[in-house]
Amino acid sequence: MSILLFIVILAALILVHEFGHFTAAKRAGVRVDEFGIGFPPRLWKKKVGETLYSINAFPIGGFVKIFGEDPNEESLKGHDSSRSLTHKSRLVQAWIISAGVIFNLLFAWILISIGFMAGLPYSVDDSAYGERVENPRLTITHVMPLSPAHEAGLKGGDIILKLVSGADVLKNPKVSATQNFISSHEEMELTYLRGGEEGTVAVGGAEGYIDGRRAIGISMDNVGILKLPIHEAFFVGLTTTASITLSMTVGIMEFFKNIFIGQANFQDIAGPVGIIGIVSDASTLGFIHLVSLTAIISINLAIINLLPFPALDGGRLFFILIEAIKRSPIKPEVANIANGIGFLILIAFMVFITFQDLSKLI
Asked: Which of 54, 125, 137, 162 could form a disulfide with 36 if both were Cys (CB 3.0 to 4.6 A apart)?
């Protein structure tokens, strides 16, 4: 079931991304040769005007074939070359290439806004809306990899109900009280609520996670449900999307900086196998958590796609910037070779991350 949910989420996000390219190209007068749902072999096709619309056998997203996206003799000098992406202004090219990323961000905004209409988890410490949060409870927001909490099976989204160590009992805990309890006890039993079901784990505090005191490797917050009317939901959805995007961008930049200085921790990232596990965890917490996770993945895909690396949208935008600076186009052979090499590197990196995900399960 988790694999199916992952496929549906991935398909939706890729389809939204490609629809962004498709819409922008159509609006700019660039010829679109095909818009496909899924990947070949084709199950159904119909040509409307100049564009072939197809439904394909492998339902992992979709694709769009834009005339001149990969420059060749026909798109440069052949029939209809004036409607080639290559022959449009660099500003138009940049808009079409970045439209997929923009649509992923818009999709995330819509999902988060819908979530606020239905009721999303929200911190009571927020100065603007904290007072409107209903039924706040101490919630684990993050579990550090390989920490005592991770080894005990605790997960983000778990609600902490009780901590017990010998005769000491802490019920309905708050953040500071929980931190003090963990710091002053070597071993304890923690009772949590996950997806409507209670569980209890034995966990011990350890040094090295927080300076000066014992910890189990979790972040916590008093979180409840915030439900907003439509107009407020879209506004808070926008600010939340912007905040998540900024935080993710900083985190990704920090990760790549650490790669260059040899301090990157690959345990902090997840590939397809890891994401399937995350989707499984979110589905146990309820549909609205799955919607939120989809929005977060959409934002993450948008940011990754903007990296100035060949084969990504950011790489294509970087080529356009180079062309604008040198005031002449990059040779199509050079661009195509760079994108091909970039694609192979991305595949190799994905294989590496997948093996790492699998090693965590062994």
From this structure: 54
